Amino acid sequence: ALHWPLHKPAALGGLAIATAYSLVAGWSVPTQRTLVMLAVVVLAQCSERRFPPLQILLLALLVVLLYSPLAVHASGFWLSFGAVGLLMLGGGLFRHLPAWRQALAVQLLLSLLLLPLTVWFFERASWVSPLANLLAVPLVSFVVVPLGLLGLLAWLCGATGAALLCWRGGADLIAVLDAMLEQFQAWSFASISVGLPDLLSLLLLCLLLFCLCQPLRRAWCWLALPLACFLLWPRPTVPAGVLRVTVLDVGQGLSVLLETREHSLLYDSGPVLGPAADAGGRIVLPALHQLHRYRLDVLLLSHDDNDHTGGAASLLQQMPVARGLGVRPRGVTALPPWQPCADGQAWEWEGWTFRLLHPVAGEGAGSDNNRSCVLRVSRGRAAVLLPGDLEQSAEQDVLRRHAPADLQADLLVLGHHGSRNASAPDWLAALRPRWAIASAGYRNRFRHPSPALLQRLREAGIPWRNTAESGALVAELDAGGLLRLRGFREGAGRYWQHDEAQAFFCESTDTVGACGALGGTPLNR
């Protein structure tokens, strides 16, 4: 102690213990950030230097990114550094308050100011998060984690019984905490679903919160009102007179969203993904929110196969649906008005005619695939056809009942995910699609789309795309027959993908040049 002040080795010892704890805790991004900031403070004390808090945070940011550059793709990276930065900026405002009021004010401040990042990453805003954090943070920090560490120490010392007692106590407390948090989540106002469609909306939301919370000029708070009106004002995402068809990438399954300016129809809901997850809740619902669709006019379930109806329960539980068509989903008690599909059913939305071509009412024979609801949407010279899992024998029935003019389609979603038993040559000749889309899973066990089918498409001169390669495929059609098609991965490529990936593939019934004027790539590229 005469040569080196005791607080320096004590600080280094604390840093060593913190490093050991970080390794035990899993070495996540928040743990790395905390350890680096602690190391900077300790080394500054040992060298008798003082660093500004913001400089410490930026140094921690630099070290984390040098160690793990791909951390920028993790939501925890942004939320962790964002929370600490906000505490540095605003945490000192509440030092004059009692401890419990200070904790409450800090939680409210963090929940509010982290709202843009929360909505951006999770498409959900929670209003009970401050209450949940006030309960969970002290319990985990001062009870559960110490019990876990005590159990680890007891186990290392050979006291297995004491270790099990500590771990069982921590596990029981976590179970109680989970039950209480589930009660919070069950409240009707606990959270709302909201999607930010682009980076501009995120920046405007950040500006809105800055105007509300900035301590410089209170008059700036009034600027939040026009910003809120702009963000909340409903803006149509589909141009007037256009039909937008989005074939979602749900793996080996099918889910297609058809939108006009004011209406939306979802054709199938994707597969079940596991014991506690399905494509409806994990893929379809977030996509609908991102497109600002918070209700469905029609949910059409083509036939009773898991890969087409597996996500229906999640959708019906979390999104209002005006009416349902096709097969009734299983495991759902509260259903909207529902009726089976039948040839001849039709309705019109904004000039677009939605017509069912199959099955025939009263005919229950045949396989479940061949009872699929076949939907055709048309207006003027433009048409889309969705045959579900219809196979070649049922395709012949449809061809016999309907004239070729009633079947022609610019865009065809291939039947049965591109199976060799669907999309017969005469079916393709009658429909004469300009584009065909296969909704199939990557390296699926059925090897869809089938090589035999792809050969038929090549012989018919029909270009095709697969959701497994392109991600979600979005097509826009107007009454004049103009068709624009883009793949999500081609339009939102990452830096590791090829630079020449093109977002649009266009075709016009008149001239290719008209398509090129939209910023697309001609078909003969």
Give the SSE map.
Layout (H helix, E strand, L loop, with lengths): L6 H19 L3 H18 L6 H15 L7 H16 L8 H15 L1 H8 L1 E3 L2 H28 L3 H27 L4 E3 L5 H15 L10 H9 L9 E6 L8 E4 L4 E4 L4 E3 L2 E2 H12 L5 E6 L4 H4 L2 H7 L2 E6 L11 E2 L6 E4 L2 E7 L15 E6 L2 E5 L5 H10 L9 E3 L11 H7 L3 E4 L12 H10 L3 E3 H4 L2 E6 L4 E5 H4 L12 E4 L4 H5 L9
Explain what this protein looks like in three dimensions.
The protein is α/β, with parallel strands linked by helices and 525 residues long. Helix 14 links the parallel strand 14 and strand 15. The longest helix has 28 residues, at 129-156. The protein is built from 19 helices and 20 strands. It starts with 6 loop residues before the first helix and ends in a 9-residue tail after the last helix. Helix 5 crosses helix 7 (129-156), helix 7 packs antiparallel against helix 8 and helix 11 (279-290) packs across helix 13. It has a nine-stranded mixed β-sheet. 44% of the residues lie in helices and 16% in strands.
With strands numbered from the N-terminus, the spatial order across the biggest sheet is 10-9-8-5-4-3-18-19-20
Runs in which pLDDT lies below 50 for 5 or more consecutive residues are: 498-525
Task: Tell me the span between the first and last alpha carbons.
Answer: 77 Å
Largest sheet: 9 strands, mixed
Kindly provide the radius of gyration, computed on alpha-carbon positions and rounded to a whole number of angstroms. Answer: 29 Å
Helix content: 40-55%
- Count of DSSP helices? 19
Question: How much strand content do the residues show?
Answer: 15-25%
Tell me the number of strands.
20
Overall shape: elongated
Average pLDDT works out at: 86
- SS content category: alpha/beta
